[in-house]
Design brief:
Its cofactor is [2Fe-2S] cluster; FAD. This protein is α/β, with parallel strands linked by helices and 247 residues long. The chain folds into two domains: 92 residues, Elongation Factor Tu (Ef-tu), domain 3 (Beta Barrel), CATH 2.40.30; 141 residues, 3-Layer(aba) Sandwich (Rossmann fold), CATH 3.40.50. It has a seven-stranded antiparallel β-sheet. The protein has a six-stranded mixed β-sheet with strand order 10-9-8-11-12-15, sandwiched between helices. Strands 13-14 form a two-stranded antiparallel sheet. The two termini are 30 Å apart.
């Protein structure tokens, strides 16, 4: 974990409410898929640091990307950053996903939760695993996967589901998972998907999401109930085996 002053390399608006922010942070060191960072900028709208999963890493350039939705004043401030502006980054934080070589893996995402799984897919592809990405969204106007060349680059198959046609219903997701018969499933913070995975026989992990204060284990505001008692999302997670969580 390091506190680094980073520089904005790009800030791409990929949908009306969605941005990909590139940060040159050469001193962060090794990053595991599933780990996260917290960021802060010089703005009255961002008093507390904001946690973000690491979407993509360009190791040869020392650049990382975060993928976020503008939902409040803090993310609005991030969406307005220009090339060359300074961003304070703390990380990498937390524990990442376990990686397996030569397996069939499903990345099961919901909305912008895809950002928590993309780097994982990239790493799994490098380990000669078959990667099936199943991404669900409210509607086609919020689809972050179909035209995403990065996601296509590591996915052997991309399946996109929508609420508007009910293809994202839990029973259809169950059907798709049983059709693929994966060795392992990785998902992000959707409780609905975690409950489904707890019912199925597949090894499964989740990048859990909770509101965080300090993000380093001191304030304990991100506690989650597990079979071994309460654990901290920022320190013991954010990645947990789904069977360890009590929802």
């Amino acid at each position: 974990m390091k506190l680094v002053e980073c520089s904005v390399t790009h800030n791409l608006r990929v949908r009306p409410e969605y941005h990909i922010l590139g940060l040159e942070c050469g001193e962060l060191g090794s990053i595991e898929p599933g780990q996260f960072i917290t960021v802060s900028v010089d703005s009255v709208e961002m008093v507390l640091r904001r946690p973000f999963s690491i979407y993509r890493v360009f190791e040869n350039r020392g650049v990382i990307e975060i993928f976020f939705k503008v939902v409040g004043k803090g993310t609005k401030a991030l969406s307005e950053l220009k090339e060359g502006m300074a961003v304070s980054v703390l990380g990498p934080l937390g524990k990442g996903f376990p990686l397996y070589e030569g397996v069939t893996a499903v990345l099961l995402s919901r909305g912008v939760g895809l950002a928590s799984l993309a780097l994982l897919g990239d790493k799994l592809k490098g380990l000669k695993s078959r990667v099936v990405t199943i991404a669900s969204f409210k509607g086609r106007d919020a689809d972050l996967a179909s035209d995403n060349e990065y996601v296509k680059s590591f996915s052997d198959e991309v399946i996109v589901l929508y609420d508007e046609d009910r293809s994202s219903d839990v029973e259809n997701v169950r059907y798709l998972l049983n059709k693929v018969k994966p060795d392992v499933v990785y998902t992000c913070g959707s409780k609905r998907l975690v409950r489904l995975l707890k019912e199925l026989p597949y090894e499964a992990y989740v990048a859990w999401e909770e509101r965080m204060g300090c993000a380093v284990g001191a304030c304990r505001s991100c506690a989650v109930r597990t079979v071994a008692g309460y654990k901290l999302t920022c320190y013991d997670g954010p990645v947990f085996n789904v069977r360890d969580l009590i929802l």
